[in-house]
Amino acid sequence: MKNILFLILALSLTVISYSQTTTKANVNKKANQISIPDSILNTFTYPSLSEAEKMLKEPAHLKDSTWDFEGGVWKFKCKYWANTLKDSVKWIRTEMFYAMEQFKTTAEAKSFFDSFKSENQKTLVVKELKQVGDEAFLVKDVLNNPFILILKNARLYKFKVYNLNRDSASDELLLLVNKIVPAF
Asked: Looking at the structure, do residues 61 and 118 belong to the same domain, yes or no?
């Protein structure tokens, strides 16, 4: 709750500095949904701690979450870490990363999406995802960690899981994606 209040305060100050009118960020009834009136972000949902724990299959905590406004793009990122190390010698732990980027136009978001997809196609197998967003794809790195990029209107959604080491990780990540990315 402390993190959400800090996020709301920081976002409110940022919105005020970019606008002539003051706006307030409100936390909706869902604890993991943020609404920013009079903002390009409007409402979006991010993975909750319980959803992260379900994905990681163990207790976890929010490692960090950040807001940024860079190059005309609003960016929200958060990372959840499993509470226990998978390898205490190498300090390896299971983690889940999520990001949402709000561009000014759909064309800008599409351009970024296309270039990111093109770069991944050079070295990895890109699997098209038809059931979510306007366009979406899934890739797995050499360690079989799934990454999903989704284009939905002028937003990009990024999901990645590290060190899960389960064949079902991609399917489980898709279930979470379908809860987070709006259907409209």
From this structure: yes
- Whether residue 97 sits in one domain with residue 146: yes
Helices (H) and strands (E) in the chain, counts: 4, 10
Angle at which helix 49-56 crosses helix 169-180, to 10 degrees, equals 160
User: Per residue in 157-182, pLDDT tens?
Assistant: 999 998 876 666 778 888 888 888 87
Q: What is the mean pLDDT of residues 132-149?
A: 90
Which residues, including other chains, have CB under 8 Å from residue 118's CB and lie 6 or more apart? none
Q: Answer yes or no: do 34 and 54 share one domain.
A: no
Measured from the Cβ of residue 158, the count of other Cβ atoms closer than 10 Å reads 16
- Whole domain around residue 68: which residue ranges? 46-180
Rounded Cα distance between 158 and 138, Å, is 10
Eight-class DSSP state of 131: S
pTM of the model: 0.73
- pLDDT tens by residue, 79-98: 999 888 776 667 778 899 99
Whole-number Cα distances in Å, 2 to 16, 31, 76, 82, 107: 21, 12, 17, 20, 36
Q: How far is residue 12 CA from its own chain's centroid?
A: 20
- Beta strand ranges found along 88-167 (DSSP E): 92-102, 127-128, 135-140, 146-152, 155-162
